[in-house]
Amino acid sequence: MAGEAKTNAFMLGTATVMLGAPADLFNLTPAANSIGLTKNFKLDASATYIKLGQGIQNKTVHSTKTGNDIMATMEAYEYTAKNLTYALGLDGYNAGAAITASTTISVKTSSTVFSVLSAVGLVVGRYITIQTGYQDQVVVRKIAAIAGVSITVDLPVANLAVGQTVSACNLIPIGSDKDDVFLSAYVVGTLADKSEVGILLPKVKVTKGFSLLFGSTDYQNLPLELTIYDQIPADPHYARFQADFGGAPAAIVTRT
Fold first, then answer.
1. Whole-structure pTM over 0.90, yes or no?
2. Which residues have CB under 8 Å from 234's CB, separation 6+?
């Protein structure tokens, strides 16, 4: 009959989005690089042309492709340090490394000096949080000095007491003038028939997507936008994409 389906390869599924350093494109894994729960991943390619017309009505007789803009958009739902850093156009794969320590105050010496059960993972110059009470009773301080398990912070802490929790934390700049960084992305989509489709994006930037809303009516998301760039000879996968993919800035790998 007219319009009869020939396969069961219909688009209804989910995707795992993995981000990392450009050199790591072929080594990105869900365990280490996935940004977590993601919905509505979409990859668009829009070609642009110069058209050649003739005659009084200037009818098009030829055209030449002058560009092929590729964009990817998605909704990321996990507000991790990595994802927030990615959303700001920064190197999220380095975020989270500071969160390796959480300890307890064992001795209070003054409002700026205290001892902890363990100083492993705490570093001079890094920021920490001190939970001085319940829920929002948390202060941010910078470590000025460490001597054994004795910690000195840069500013006094009111209500500092033995038993309070001290944790290493990340500092994520918002509105920084630091240049956006190039990333690589590997996306594996699972279709309704359980087949997998892989998308290789060797050179991307996160150009939009930071949104932080503490709402109570629905789950919030980071509306990430990836801009895909063409590689240059200095890029790590330039030669491979020139030889195997005709110099394309992206490639799809599929079994179907």
1. no
2. none
